[in-house]
């Protein structure tokens, strides 16, 4: 099933001038940052890029091709990050909120009217507002990354951004297979940790849980 703008259009019709689709990437990884993508659309945004889907349903090659098309289509896009150290320090849910907050700040600084927007958040739990000093209007939706083009766009932008960071780590911290595993817990990745030890990219509290 391809995503549409039906949900966003209904939100616009209900009075929302802007809708910001939000999705996270890297939540289940054992290394690397957690990334939160944001994709702002309005009623005049037009047809989304052909083939846009939740990033998990796309090949790496297709995601890489779609990311700039999504950025060109949406009114604004941004990606916020929270580091592995922050995930260890405050927990994954709070880290998601921190990453989203950073993405919203970046979007605001780029000119987006964040305060006038309604947030369309993938999932059933509002993990965003607890991280904000001033609450935003949040509408959660299960499988929004599958059904809603703004959230699918957010997932693609975040996934490509995070993947590029992990690929770049191959040069700085070789031997862990970052380009292939992107920080997720493959057998080869765990074997590399056993041989070489953990790095600053690893979520050390998660390694204890998975050991």
TrEMBL record:
Q: What class of enzyme is it?
A: hydrolase
Which molecular-function annotation in GO is an example for this chain?
RNA-DNA hybrid ribonuclease activity
InterPro entries with a match to the protein in the record: RNase_HII, RNase_HII/HIII, RNase_HII/HIII_dom, RNaseH-like_sf, RNaseH_sf
Main location, first listed in the record = cytoplasm
Q: From the Swiss-Prot or TrEMBL record, state where the protein is found.
A: Cytoplasm
Annotated positions binding a divalent metal cation? 23-24, 122
Q: Which UniProt keywords apply?
A: Cytoplasm, Endonuclease, Hydrolase, Manganese, Metal-binding, Nuclease
What does the cofactor field's note say?
Manganese or magnesium. Binds 1 divalent metal ion per monomer in the absence of substrate. May bind a second metal ion after substrate binding.
**CDD domains in the record, alphabetically?**
RNase_HII_bacteria_HII_like
Annotated EC: 3.1.26.4
Cross-referenced SUPFAM superfamilies:
Ribonuclease H-like
- What does it catalyze? Endonucleolytic cleavage to 5'-phosphomonoester
Q: Name one Pfam family in it.
A: RNase_HII
- What cofactor is this protein dependent on? Mn(2+); Mg(2+)
Q: Any idea where the RNase H type-2 domain is?
A: 17-211
Q: Which family does it belong to?
A: Belongs to the RNase HII family.
User: Its function?
Assistant: Endonuclease that specifically degrades the RNA of RNA-DNA hybrids.
- Which NCBIfam families does the entry link to? PRK00015.1-3
Instruction: Report the protein name in the record.
Output: Ribonuclease
Q: Which organism is it from?
A: Conyzicola nivalis
């Amino acid at each position: 099933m391809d995503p549409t703008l039906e949900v966003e259009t209904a939100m616009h019709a209900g009075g929302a001038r802007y809708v910001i689709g939000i999705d996270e990437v890297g939540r289940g990884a054992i290394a690397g940052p957690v990334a939160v993508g944001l994709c702002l659309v309005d009623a005049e945004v037009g047809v989304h890029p052909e083939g846009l889907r939740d990033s998990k349903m796309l090949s790496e090659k297709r995601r890489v091709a779609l990311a700039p098309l999504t950025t060109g289509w949406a009114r604004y896009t941004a990606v916020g990050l929270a580091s592995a150290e922050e995930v260890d320090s405050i927990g994954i849910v709070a880290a998601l909120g921190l990453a989203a907050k950073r993405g919203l700040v970046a979007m605001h600084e780029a000119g987006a009217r964040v305060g006038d927007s309604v947030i369309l958040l993938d999932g059933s739990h509002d993990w965003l507002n607890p991280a904000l000093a001033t609450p935003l209007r949040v509408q959660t939706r299960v499988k929004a990354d599958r059904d809603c083009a703004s959230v699918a766009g957010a997932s693609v932008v975040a996934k490509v951004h995070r993947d590029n960071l992990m690929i770049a780590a191959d040069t700085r911290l070789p031997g862990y297979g970052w380009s292939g595993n992107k920080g997720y817990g493959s057998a080869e990745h765990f074997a590399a940790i056993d041989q070489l030890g953990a790095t600053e990219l690893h979520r050390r509290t998660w390694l204890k849980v998975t050991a």
